[in-house]
Amino acid sequence: MSVSPKGKAGVINPVKLSGFRQRRASVGINIPIRYLLLSTMESQLESLGKSHQLKVTTLLPLHRSLMAQMVPFANYSMPLKYETTIINEHLHTRSSTGFFDVSHMGQADIYGGDVISALEKIIPIDLENLALGKIKYSQILNNDGGIVDDLMISRLNNINGQPCFRIIVNASCKDKDYQYIRSYLSPSASLIDRSDLSLISIQGPKSSDVLSRIIPEAIKMSFMTLKELNLEDKKIIVSRCGYTGEDGFEISIENNYVKKLAQRILEQKHTFPVGLGARDTLRLEAGLCLYGSDINEDISPVEANLSWSLSKKRIKKGNFLGSSRIINELETNPSKIRTGLRLLGKAIARPGMLVRSLDGLEIGKVTSGAYGPSIGCSIAVALISQKFSIINSKLLVEIRNKFVEAEVVQLPFVSHKYYRGG
Amino acid sequence: MENYFYTKEHEWVTVKDNLATVGITNFAQKQLGDIVFVEFPKQGSVYSQGDEISVIESVKAASEVYAPISGKVHVCNNDLEGSPDLVNASPEGDGWLFKISEFDSVELNSLMSRDEYEDYIKNIEG
User: Fold this and answer.
1) Of A39, A130, A264, A378, which sits 20 to 30 A from A156 (CA to CA)?
2) What is the ipTM of this complex?
3) Domain residues of chain B, as ranges?
4) Does the beta-carbon distance from A4 to B62 stay under 8 Å?
């Protein structure tokens, strides 16, 4: 038998094999098991310090002690899963609490000279009126309205009387993003790479209980808010957000202190470590985009079904990159759109597979697909012709030269359970 | 104990009453992780040694299964339709994939013994 990785670029690709992965995605070549092994071996070598090809997070020794299976991902050696299975880690997060190390993601602070107008040029939200402690999901746009990256952006306390924004971007894009953003900043503004910080995430219905024993100030926070707090005299930033569709928190903390905090969280009952494998199935069920698979520099936020994230005020003004395309797509509907599919067969629709109408017309491609452990069936997200994106209608996915029926469904597949009280 | 033969592609085969039962090895199921679907060959179809005969889908990958010997698909393991995870739980037992008839047992000589296979995966794992 041979093993092929789930072909996808960007944030969550459990068995990312650069080069091979892309080929698999576009023409469906399966990858022999030996390549999969090679990738595992590479990351083991890296963890032994014999290779400098992959970067590691501060928590690598902890992952190793927790028996993580490490895989290369976005130039990092990251846990695919720990002692149990991807499905168990997924289900545990949905029913209790999962702990994730997401320190590979990019954290940066941007402040100084006219930072708001510079950022508003490339990010289509109302940063001027973004209140202190509020987080927004948005996209960094290129000249054509395509997505350079998606990100979380929030306003921190002023620095020298000037507004300061914290961004969290994808690991696979961070170097490109920083360079791109800097090219729009005035000489008196700065983007500071905060790779001195780690980022850990706890997700699931019991994450608030777990955190109440460590950071009690956090539990009254609402979804998409952030607080700068002190934990034993150490400055930390707690955000109530995540990438699973569950209630949860992300904690940004200096690399020097992250191990102690991670251990304290993992000591709490209900808390188990969760790797990138389950992070991917969780985000897919929650209908969240994966950069490099579902979205990229050619796809606009409207096509990506992310119109809800665009600021109405900014759309009205239209003073950002790619605004003419985006406004036009909002008015006339885009020709293609990111759509949820529930497969009626058991086979998995992998990225790159063709989607057809019932009479065989090619209408798009799968961008993400997996078995949804919480739904118990095969699910996918596809970029398809907008006129075929009709809820409850049937389409076909071409899987290994066979046509599998799929139903168009509303995203998310699993409803969000965010905490909005507070 | 029956005689098991192994391929470099991590399939096993064992012969009893003129039927060759085929499955994937414990090593392979561990590499694949949670198995969620097994796509079976058509009963009665004929394959040559090395042909792609079936596909196994795990959460993280799609994996081809190759015919370890030439022959005719006699029966598939229907239990896997409802419980594909049997391949994880018992890869060399209840998680067998299919049985082949009308094969040439001479082809078994081209496969590895248990000891040879164990050496083989030790080499892969380094």
Assistant:
1) A264
2) 0.87
3) 4-103
4) yes
Strand ranges in B35-118 using DSSP code E only, listed in sequence order: 35-39, 46-47, 52-58, 61-66, 71-76, 98-101
This prediction has a pTM of 0.89
CA distance A27 to chain B (A): 14
- Backbone phi and psi for residue A189, each to the nearest 5 degrees, phi listed first: -105, 155
CA distance A290 to A170: 9
Give the type of residue at A310. Answer: L
Instruction: For residue A45, give both structure tokens.
Output: 């070598």
Q: Does B50 touch chain A (CB under 8 A)?
A: no
Amino acid identity, position A164 = C
Residue among A5, A34, A347 minimizing CB distance to B124: A34
Residue A372 bridge partners (DSSP)? A377
Tokens of B17: 């009453």
B4-103 fold = OB fold (Dihydrolipoamide Acetyltransferase, E2P) (2.40.50)
By C-alpha distance, the chain A residue nearest B33 is A85
User: What are the residue boundaries of the structural domains of chain A, listed by start?
Assistant: 20-97
